[in-house]
Design brief:
The complex is a heterodimer. Chain A is of the alpha/beta class. Chain A contains 9 helices and 17 strands. Chain A starts with a strand and ends with a helix. In chain B, α2 packs across α5 and α3 packs across α4. The radius of gyration of chain B is 21 Å and the shape is globular. Helix content of chain B is 27%, strand content 33%. Classes of the chains: A alpha/beta, B alpha/beta. Chains A and B meet through α3, α4, β7, β8 and β9 of A and α4, β9, β10, β11 and β14 of B.
Amino acid sequence: MSALVFIETSEGKARKSSLEAIAYGNALGGGVTAVVLGVCDKPELESLGKYGAKKIIHVSDARLNAGVIQAYASVLAQVMQQENCETLIMANSSLATPVAARVSIKTGASLLSNVTQLPEGNVFKRSIYSGKAFANVELKNQKRIITLKKNAAESKETGGTAEIVTFNANLSDSDFAARIISSEKATGEVLLPEASIVVSGGRGMKGPEHWGMLEELAKTLHAATGCSKPVSDMGWRPHHEHVGQTGVKVAPQLYIAIGISGAIQHLAGVNSSKCIVVINKDADCPFFKAADYGIIGDAFDVVPKLTAALKASK
Amino acid sequence: MKILVCISHVPDTTSKINFVDNNTKFDTTGVQFIIGPYDDYALARAIELKESHQASVTVINVGAAETEPTIRKALAIGADDAIRINSDPSDSYFVAYQIAEQAKSGTYDLILMGRESIDFNGGVVHSLVGEMMGWPSLSPVMKLELDGTKAKLEREIEGGKEQIEVSLPFVAGCQEPIAEWKIPNMRGIMSARTKPLKVVEPATVEKSTVLKKYDLPAAKSAVKMVSADNVSELVTLLKTEAKVL
């Protein structure tokens, strides 16, 4: 029986983490039906076939262009029921995780968030204690909803094609009781939770006016920029860039920390990274202990050299 | 106006994580427990609303007797009374069910909690409670202003934030900078001792998940240092050894 995968879009494109969710669904066996909410271009819908969805359900209701938690939950519960789906998969996000929770109550499904890899039978591994441990959890109900941490599966272009069907959801006013008045969103940038590479700066950068060199390095690497908690607290950078225990938790292939001492609260946000590079002028900074590679040096000297070396190596 | 604040009792963020009993139980040896940092933000905002809107604040915790010092701390910070559901909080559905059962009998206008607990990192209890109550649920909320029965919220989204209007009652999962953490003063600590703390046995409900065992991540290999005068070596290592470029 095919798994249903919720596709979250950003600037009209399916997020990379949603493509990972398709790959995860396929690895469970039984194929994937992808569901897209809100207005979406046909080529973008078709492209989901290339990533392994065999059927696309499009709920093309303009009221769903914004991510309204309750309305999304109602629609997904209806789609799950109509398709007779027992498994719903989505990538963790500020929208998807709350939506998954509400759908689980509507459908009577077991719910598990923060899943990090494929299950063994019906036992799923999830990240706990901010990446410091894992729990192996069995889901008891026949229906199950899981949300994935980044890199739980690798997205693959399989080159397939998908059938696209439209679905008319039954929505009531109460689904829109919480009204989104406005939203501000960085455009054209790599989203921090989605990024394969993250360049992060700390207090060692000495002030917001020095972020240009980090942005230059990030641009060279097609990376997102992040920061430590003090940097966001002091208003040098916006809160959505704060990486750590109480900020965004990232899991990129490569995390480059510049001028960040590596307080345990910061490490809690980065410890799922595949490779960590630390650049710090203090040889005793605790972050080196958690790093794969380290450079002891002044950021103002090392960062431009690193950017130049990366450009030269291309 | 009545506010219910849900708090988790979690290991301090600097705790070393270990397991005992064949990796089926968290090792509490030498671990200090605190109010979940996100729940602490929710509590701080509730106390501010108590002062500005003459609200009453009830804290609720699903946990065994050892969570009572954590609950007392919430009372010392300024909550008026507390409920402890005498049970093990190992399944988010179970925890949410207990909270919703209490909330249904309590005529609350607003339920606040953290966006997630820092032990199990589920990030779902606010939304589960919202759905069980039939109320809107919003998370992660960075600002919450009340105007009569209406509220204006700011919710963080990937790469930005959105402004939301919603009427009471609703559930919010909170995070910074919704309020500054509050430190209990001596008067608060003294009065907390005599504030009501009701212990309730859990409502009967099946858990929807079963914990099999815990694992720790594989130990990390030692850091490899590269000279600041030879940055191109780092680029080579990232390409050929780590294979991340």
